[in-house]
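Handout, page 2. Input:
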Amino acid sequence: MRLRVNINPDIAALMQAEIAAGEKAVSAAMREAGGSLKSAWRTQITGAGLGTRLGNSIRLATFPRTSNSLNAAALVWSKAPVIIGAHDTGPLIRSKDGFWLAIPTAAAGKSTRGGRITPGEWERRTGLRLRFIYRRRGPSLLVAEGRLNTKGRAVASRSKTGRGVATVPIFLLVPQVKLRKRLDLARDAERAVDGVPGLIVERWSSRLSG
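Output:
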């Protein structure tokens, strides 16, 4: 036995309008929630002193890309997940080979490739040799015999008399480093998720009233 139900065209049109309004509301809500989360994460990263470049690694994509849907979604992610994740969790960092971690001092300067310079790069760049000094208390050192230039960086001395030459700490050596947790991305993500139902109701109501 088959039961056939005829729906009034006016009711069918209202149902279609309701569905269309819902699709637009959900899609708009997800775009707004995703945009707000992207902005919040970027603000948190730059506010932590990690720079605008790392902040701009936060990206947003919404789905579907060109249409509306009741199943619309927003994805917020970073193009530098390892760096962001490290500052978000505050991990304990150890050397891969079980040796020392070399932390450059101000006298070491910066790497030509950006970021922290390594002992090998420093020796190649300056032509100076690093010497290991073990200390019972406090970090051990890699030092060099040179002079400090006007920027406070160690360079080779041109003096034939040795005037101005000093033993300069170039790297601090430690077995491990606990990276300070500087971000709380989950906090902003939870706020964004909690706000989605209200955004959907707001957008849906405004479209129906309009």
